[in-house]
Specification:
Blueprint (H helix, E strand, L loop, with lengths): L6 H14 L21 H8 L3 H8 L8 H10 L4 H14 L18 H9 L5 E4 L5 E4 L1 H6 L13 H7 L3 H4 L3 H18 L4 H13 L1 H7 L9 E8 L3 E11 L7 E6 L5 H17 L4 H8 L1
Antiparallel strand pairs: 1-2, 1-5, 3-4, 4-5
Helix pairs in contact: 1-5, 2-3, 2-4, 4-5, 8-10, 10-12, 11-12
Length: 300
Amino acid sequence: MVEGMDNRAEVREFLISRRAHVAPEQVGLPTGSNRRVKGLRRSEVATLAGLSVEYYTRLERGAISGASPQVLESIARALNLDDAERAHLFDLAHAASPIARPPRRRNSKSYVPHQSLQWALDAVTAGPAFVRNGRMDLLAVNPLARAFYMDCYDMPGQAPNIARFTFLDQRAYEFYPDWDAFAEVTVSILRTEAGRDPHNKELHDLIGELSTRSEEFRTRWGAHNVRHHGTGFKTFNHPVVGEMTLAFEGLEMAAEPGLTLTIYAAEPGSPSAERLQLLASWAASEYGVQPASEKTRTDG
């Protein structure tokens, strides 16, 4: 069981992994023929960041508590960090501070959605809409999301969790036609959340479970990749209605720090839109929920 994350080890492994990703020529340095490390040397990062080699070495060994925002920014620039990686570095530094307050995160056991939130989710009738936490628990869903993630709700003895489904349920390989891409995204979301909230016991229990039971997860976790995951397109192969390509938008909930509201939508008039309508009809028969097309006729 994982009780918490070793912040110094996380800082060390993250900075080393990012340093390995930067080729010397990317930052105007000669490649050379006698390099014994992949990517940049510590001394090169220190020079690019305007720091002494001794100070950067201490930081890379995990002694990041007290590093100023200016120092963190200089390291981010030297390592060519993207927005998600930069935010992760700042999260790790914040977590290392002795006065840092742990963020308030919602878990699947204690969270009860406000009635108004459930009304808002249920008002989205053309696509799946759901609320998840950084651990990827499904905390609140509209009827179409319940039907969409039917297999996540069908894992005996477990609350619905997208990460657990992705790595521990064989049906995920059918549900996600590009399983590798979904696996990478899933691990990156968990890694990002672990940096924000390094003492979240539920989160680290999940990471420990996945690391123990899935070599695919273990390999990806060791890469230390992070990302922001807010918008784009995904293709799914639903067991009831077949393949759908859907746009998604993820919205951080201002009233509930750490929670994300996600809505999937199909291009109007597309085959995917037709299949979402079919899924709504199936949900109506399976769960007693009236599909949007029939509500329109009834209310009109």
